[in-house]
Amino acid sequence: MWKGRDHRTLVLCALVALLSSAAMVERGALGLKYPASWPEPSYIGAAPTPAGVELGRRLFYDPVLSRDSIVSCSSCHLSYTAFAHVDHALSHGIRDSIGTRNAPALMNLAWNKAFMWDGAVNHLDVQALSPINHPAEMGEETTHVVEKLQRIPAYRARFKEVFGDSVITGQRLLKALAQFQLTLISCGSKYDRVKEGSETFTEQEAKGYALFRSNCNACHREPLFTTGEFANNGLPLDSALKDIGRMGVTKAPEDSLRFKIPTLRNIEFSFPYMHDGRSKDLRAVLEHYDHGIVTSRTLAPELAEGILLTPNERTDLIAFLLTLSDREFCFNPDHAFPRQ
Q1: What string of DSSP letters covers 123-174?
Q2: Which of 77, 126, 270, 333 is the most buried (most CB within 10 A)?
């Protein structure tokens, strides 16, 4: 029956599995599932419901939200690449227009206090206003989107199921999109299993983790692998884009060239990197931190001396970063295009 395995070993394995399965349960007023070791979400708003999430999911994948009914939210945020866009450095919109920034990966948004690379939006419930109304993205007007949705019986029925009546408004549209995005929680990587105690790092991954802790954790803080703050990471100003980052929102000189610190979760899938997609792979990113940093008065103090690693150390660090890949998240059918 035991096939040669020690009884105590099997009991221990069963206990570890039980603890691991209990590590992620519904928590807090929002009823979201995430590990017990994680902080409370920052999101303030109504808890998502199954019907609300499904409505938001259908809206997320529906190109009717764009002016030409060709571009959807998912056009720039692909589920199987951690809701990022890997085809090109800068986002593309209606009529083949090209944006000015790389489309960021979408995950663990309930813990975000600011959105967009420059933090121009401060609440998930209104974030979608920006891409819907941006002329180089979806190129629409919210009022026109509402008019189009109101003419679709299936949407009127779904809005009634979620909100109590079939009246479609801009506010309800945005709230539905937010409900779906609240459920985009990535916490099933090898790193997470190591933290639960159900798996262990390889020797190389452990070395990489130590390097991460000493060189990267200040900005890409565990367990979300971002502080959610803004920083100047020493990238030279692009002569064509001339993107000054958060300063464009706050007008404060101390925010010059500061961009939102992205999460490193699923970094394997979310290339190219940086706010303008200038780095095609992780080695290019590490080369920047080694010898490409441009010093300025707003440079993050943690980068004043750069991050100097040997070639072997870079390989070890990348090996650790790959443990942040959550394939169950990326290929979750509940996040994918609704087939029915």
Answers
A1: -HHHHTHHHHH-TTTT---HHHHHHHHHT-HHHHHHHHHHHSSS---HHHHH
A2: 270
pLDDT band at 20 (very low <50, low <70, confident <90, very high): very low
DSSP letters of 69-90?
S---GGGTSBGGGTTB--S-SS
pLDDT digits (tens, 9 = 90+) for 62-76: 999 999 999 999 999
Q: Could you tell me the two tokens for 134?
A: 């941006």
Q: How big is the CA angle at 339 (ends 105 and 91), to the nearest 5 degrees?
A: 30
DSSP β-ladder status, 32-35 and 24-27: antiparallel
Q: Let me know: does 211 contact 205? Beta carbons within 8 Å.
A: no
Greatest Cα-to-Cα distance within the chain, rounded to the nearest angstrom: 71
Beta-strand runs (E) in the chain: 24-27, 32-35, 230-231, 259-260
Phi, psi for 115 (deg, rounded to 5): -130, 160
Token couple for 133: 């109304």
